[in-house]
Amino acid sequence: MKVILRTILKTPPALIGLFVLSLMVFCALLAPWLSPYDPREAFEPMQPPSPRHILGTNDLGYDLWAEWLQGARFSLTLGASAAALSSAIGLLIGSIAGYQERAGFVLMRLVDVFLAVPRFPLIVFMAAFVKPGFWTLLTFFTLFGWPPVARIIYAHMRAEKNREYILAAIAVGANESRIVFRHLLPSAFPLALVRLVSEMQHVIMAESGLSFLGLGDPTMRSWGMTLSHAFRYPALLLTRVWQWWALPAGVAITLVCLALVLIGLALEPLANPRLRDG
Amino acid sequence: MKAQRSRATLSVKVLQYAFTMWVILTLNFALPRLIPGNPLAELDNPQGLPIPLSEEQRMRLMAYYGLDKPLWRQYIDYLAGFIRADWGWSISYNAPVLVILIRRLRWTIPLVGTSFILYVALGVALGNFSAWHRRRFSDGLLLTLMSVTGAFPTFFLAMLLIVLFGVKLKLLPLGGAQSPLALSKPWLTRNLDLIRHAILPTTTLILANIGEIYYLTRNAMIQTLGEMYISVARAKGLGERRVRLRHALPNALLPIITLITLRFGFLVMGAVMVETTFAYPGIGSVIVEANTSRDYPLLQGAFALIMLSVMGANLLADLLYGLLDPRIRRNV
User: Fold this and answer.
1) Does A113 touch chain B (CB under 8 A)?
2) Contact flag A128-B34 (C-beta cutoff 8 Å)
């Protein structure tokens, strides 16, 4: 963990990313204090930004700043939890598969089937029928998020388990679970973490896309949903309204993704030593 | 890992894809039946559909789903119908699903095809450039630019391009695939009009997809240039150009083929977003339309077609990989 923090602190772009991300998390956490309004409190519709409503109101009269804050909560929570779950499951299954030959064969065939399916079109299709809310989306993204992690961890484990320190651990009589959980798993952490960062970016982007296409639960309060509502008016881009209705949500998604990309770029050499300087 | 996967023989590969396609078709069959009620329940709901169904449409739909028959019979009929190119009857268009989809493909294939060729070519070229100028200013600039474009959600990028080039500069049309009455214009005007409408969607797709290809090419090239055989080639006194293009590039390109495969699903999703935002009448916008109008047969058909093409492209890339990698060539 220390290496990871140090890497981020040493790389200026990653530091900026971390700062932007923290700012968003801060907004999400303090949402009730940052906006005086309930996101479902109706005011006069279609107001431009004013001191009373920083981002104005939408066609139903909801305060857009309050909605934006709810969007931050939704997108960040979904992204972080889906990515964390995927990485954890992938890490666990990948390490078991990498250590145990026979279980590994079966698990990796399962991974093959999952990896052969183009996951985003599939999620879109499932969403069209289910109209998923938070928990369903979390399930979808986790269901298709763990296999790539498992494959990477599996490859890593296969190489790692023949290293000398593992042989030494076996020689001093450490049992299997100790070797897997105390020695092998920690060695795969940086790999899983790099995946976690890029997975979080993908989930946030995919969720906003789904919602934008109108495939999510319409009562969901995500950034993508705000954009989707705004885009029901075809003339949106011709007036100035898009600047406070659609732009803040779009910019927010972009900033979060960019922050994650920057952090991911800095962490990548940890997972791929050949990219290191020198 | 990749070499190991590709070592599988051709028939195993094809079987694997056939199996996955079967899983997808089964899902496609099952999903509409898993939602509460039956697929027609939503249509019977007077609030669910703007226009009530005529009795003839209802009968057609009943026949398509075969809801009076047992489930296993419906399943067999569905699979057989899929193979016989009988993909059902679209409710909202009142026409065979496959006919509508093929009509829409005429717009999607040129759009996605052009973007695909351009972003792969550009991405590989820029990635190479970056790797050769590693840690110089131009490399850093490109890397930053590519990371930034990759962070934009496709539809947001599309929106910004529309505002900039369509609304503010008034250079390009806001959406659609052709101007009204374009068909009555002379050949040249008509085609220029088509191109003008395609510029923004193509640009969006390129920008949305180029980052990953660029980044992978750059990394693969940097790694390859660090290999022993490159030092050997240099030691032999070969020119730097020859070392890079003849010795390093072909090897660096191999992982990119795999990436293109993995990214194909993303490209298709990008196409759905772009077509929706630009109101481009391709296969991607069918999904959203069918979803809004609850036209399940059309939705299922579009999904099956998209999956079929993605899997086909994946299979092709797998075969190509086998042909290009001398280490596994003999096994294919």
Assistant:
1) yes
2) no
**Structural contact between residues A192 and A153, judged by C-beta atoms closer than 8 angstroms:** yes
* Cα–Cα distance for residue pair B285/B276, rounded to 1 Å: 5
Q: Is the pLDDT of residue A91 over 60?
A: yes
Judge whether A117 is closer than 8 Å to chain B, CB to CB.
yes
- Nearest-Cα distance to chain B for A38, in Å, is 27
Task: Tell me how far CA of residue A51 lies from CA of A35, A56, A59, A65, A243, in angstroms.
Answer: 12, 9, 19, 11, 16
> Which A positions 172-201 lie with beta carbon below 8 A of chain B?
201
ipTM of the complex: 0.82
Which residues 151-190 on chain B approach chain A with CB closer than 8 angstroms? Answer: 151-156, 159-160, 162-163, 166-167, 174
Give the pLDDT of residue B331: 45
B151-164 pLDDT, tens digit per residue, is: 888 888 988 888 88
User: Residue A11 and residue A264: Cα distance in Å, rounded?
Assistant: 11
Q: Is B291 within 8 Å of A130 when comparing Cβ atoms?
A: no
Residue holding tokens 């897997």? A180
Q: Does A118 touch chain B (CB under 8 A)?
A: yes
> What is the C-alpha to C-alpha distance for residues A265 and A12, in angstroms, rounded to an integer?
11
Q: Distance (Å) from the C-alpha of residue A248 to the closest C-alpha of chain B?
A: 11
Among residues A38, A36, A24, A34, the alpha carbon closest in space to that of A221 is found at: A38
Q: What is the pTM (predicted TM-score) of this model?
A: 0.85
Question: Is B269 in Cβ contact with A121 (below 8 Å)?
Answer: yes
A63 phi, psi to nearest 5 deg: -70, 120
Using one digit for the tens of pLDDT, what is the confidence trace for A167-181?
888 888 888 788 878
Greater confidence (B296 vs B160) lies with B160
Q: What is the pLDDT of residues A94-142, one digit of tens each?
A: 888 888 888 888 888 888 878 877 788 888 888 888 778 889 899 999 9
Helix H or strand E segment including B95: strand B95-96
